[in-house]
């Protein structure tokens, strides 16, 4: 089971920052998760909340304004990819407005498809990217669908769209087995205890987006250096 550092190592440095990613890699992770939004000045910024602590929509702020609100320099996706070229990245697109900018970036940078999994709760974005780009894609699922085909119908025609990323509370062993039988990989996010991480492994989960390196024998103290 591949551990993916959720927004870097946010117990040590602000989430989705270059420092958080560096700490995660120092702790022993080789895979990183990050969130991408589009700023008002057209930058793909790594920031998770939809609004700032002051209540301003991220989409209405420039990168510099967002950084001033956050209290640190909010990195761009380009900066993160350039800083850590050997990492595997799970890039989560938070808003449809970011999708065309990501596709342009992917084409300009010739991103390595073996080093990226693009995901989103906005499944129409992922289907579009899977149609147009040679990048592995995944669908985020926060609920257990009544039947697996309601989730997979749009994905089946696209061979690059073969990963499902489930919230821990939506995991269902029957659906996981069905997805595996159809050639899909199952990932999970939201597990919080050692037991829940172990259960994900028993369920055959191939990747887990996690805030807990200690549950994988990774060095928390190394991330502090």
TrEMBL record:
GO terms for molecular function: phosphoric diester hydrolase activity. It comes from the Bacteria. GO terms for biological process: lipid metabolic process. The lineage of its organism: Bacteria, Pseudomonadati, Pseudomonadota, Betaproteobacteria, Neisseriales. Residues 1-220 form the GP-PDE domain. PANTHER family: GLYCEROPHOSPHODIESTER PHOSPHODIESTERASE, GLYCEROPHOSPHORYL DIESTER PHOSPHODIESTERASE. This is Glycerophosphoryl diester phosphodiesterase. InterPro entries: GP_PDE_dom (IPR030395), PLC-like_Pdiesterase_TIM-brl (IPR017946). It holds the Pfam family GDPD. It comes from Formivibrio citricus.
């Amino acid at each position: 089971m591949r551990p993916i550092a959720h927004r870097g190592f946010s117990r040590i440095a602000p989430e989705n920052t270059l420092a958080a990613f560096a700490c995660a890699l120092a702790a022993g992770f080789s895979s990183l998760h990050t969130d991408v939004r589009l700023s008002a000045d057209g930058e793909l910024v790594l920031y998770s909340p939809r609004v700032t602590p002051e209540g301003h929509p991220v989409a209405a702020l420039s990168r510099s304004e967002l950084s001033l609100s956050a209290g640190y320099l909010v990195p761009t996706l380009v900066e993160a990819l350039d800083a850590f070229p050997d990492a595997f990245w799970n890039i989560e697109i938070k808003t449809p407005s970011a999708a065309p900018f990501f596709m342009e970036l992917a084409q300009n940078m010739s991103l390595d498809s073996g080093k990226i999994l693009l995901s989103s709760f906005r499944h129409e974005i992922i289907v579009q990217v899977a149609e147009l780009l040679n990048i592995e894609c995944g669908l985020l699922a926060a609920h257990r669908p009544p039947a697996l085909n309601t989730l997979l119908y749009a994905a089946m025609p696209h061979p690059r769209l073969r990963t499902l990323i489930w919230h821990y509370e939506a995991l269902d062993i029957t659906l996981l087995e069905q997805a595996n039988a159809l050639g899909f990989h199952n990932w999970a996010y939201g597990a919080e205890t050692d037991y829940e991480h172990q259960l994900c492994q028993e369920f055959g989960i191939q990747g887990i987006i996690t805030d807990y390196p200690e549950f994988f024998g990774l060095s928390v103290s190394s991330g502090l250096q």
